[in-house]
Amino acid sequence: MAIVSLVAVVVLLFVIKRLILVRLKEKARSETSSMSNIYRVLVLSLNAPLNLLILVIVLSLVKSVVAVFQVEDKAVLHALGIAIEAGLIITLFLLLERFVTYSLRRYRDQSTLVKNTSAIASGAVRAVFAIMAVLIILSTMGISITPVVASLGITSLAVALALQPTLENFFSGIQLVMDKPIRIGDFIELDSGEQGFVEKIGWRSTWVRMLPNNIVIMPNSKLSNSKLINYYYPERELSVPVEVGVHYSSDLEQVEKVCLAVAEDILANHEYGVKTFQPFVLFHTFDNSSINLTVMLRTREYFNRFFIKSAFIKALKKRFDEEGIVIPFPITALNIDQECTDAIISQSIKKHS
Predict the structure, then answer these.
(1) Distance separating alpha carbons of residues 281 and 252, to the nearest angstrom
(2) Does residue 4 come out as left (phi exceeding 0), alpha (psi in the -120 to 50 range) or beta?
(3) Residue 103: other Cβ atoms inside 10 A
């Protein structure tokens, strides 16, 4: 009868577990997106802990049966009691570990930190929960855990000293992800001059894909302590200055009108132009052979500036030719009279000497 009762209890408990999981799945389908994710995580997290909890309940029933039929056998009862306590502790920590692990997997596509660190974070979570569970089980068994904790502290200190560069990169990586000076997909320029797209932000290093399609791997500690330019922050749109020089005999008012007309046409029709931006012209330098000005355009992102600048230069050169506006060649003027005078003086000095 005891065996039949235990089997019936096990079957009943598995049926209850099944009903609980089915109910949670139905709630996940009916709730909003954020709540549905929580219910899905609960469904995945509860399966193994509930199986272990059923085993603990069965052990409790077995202990009751043993207590009835073997009252004087204290060793069996003590062993069953320890197994039940250990089972409850493992069930609790297994539930917490599964919840954290499946939460990381569920939300890794929504966060750069979770996406880049989910695998290592899951392993670290399992290790931490396993150590805590073992220490608590040893404590319930009457074993002193003070020497174990002291040994773990000394070992952790030794490991920290040995892995100091690695830990420095690790915490620098967390700082980069939390502070978000750069994000995956951003186009950045390092203080050493390299430019590229952020490919991955890992625990130890950050990968930057350069324009020639090669990868630069920067340790996180060096990246966090260096000066860099993020061309995608706070927004991707970027001003594109174009330097132009015209002849001194040019009508500057006409030059300004022509430049603005060409710039507006490029921004309106080019695929990388920002149509809402109003271009402007600034004259700034009387150079050796030209009056220099800057035409300010705007493009959607940094990498597009090469194409829109090229299109503008070609269109502006064509329009200058039509309007008769001259872009002068570099000119060097030689004062022949002064050079001849210096030669005559030098010859006379030589004769008198």
Answers:
(1) 11
(2) alpha
(3) 19
Distance CA 56, CA 275 (A): 69
Helix (H, G, I), strand (E, B) or coil at 210: strand
What does the DSSP 8-state code read for residue 274? -
Kindly report whether the peptide bond that precedes residue 181 is cis, defined as omega within 30 degrees of 0.
no
The residues with which 218 forms a beta bridge, in sequence order, are 206
| pLDDT tens-place string over residues 174-226 | 777 677 788 888 888 888 888 888 888 877 788 888 888 888 888 888 888 88
Structure tokens at 297: 């355009």
- Tokens 């008012």 -> residue: 253
For residue 139, give both structure tokens.
Answer: 């404590």
The pTM of this model reads: 0.53
Nearest Cα residue to 213 out of 232, 238, 229, 195: 195
Asked if 299 contacts 291 with a C-beta cutoff of 8 angstroms, the reply is: no
Q: CA 139: distance to chain centroid?
A: 41
Q: How many CA atoms lie within 13 A of 180 on its CB side?
A: 10
Res 162: pLDDT = 58
Four-residue CA torsion sign, 268, 274, 278, 284: negative
Alpha carbon distance 304, 261 (integer Å): 21
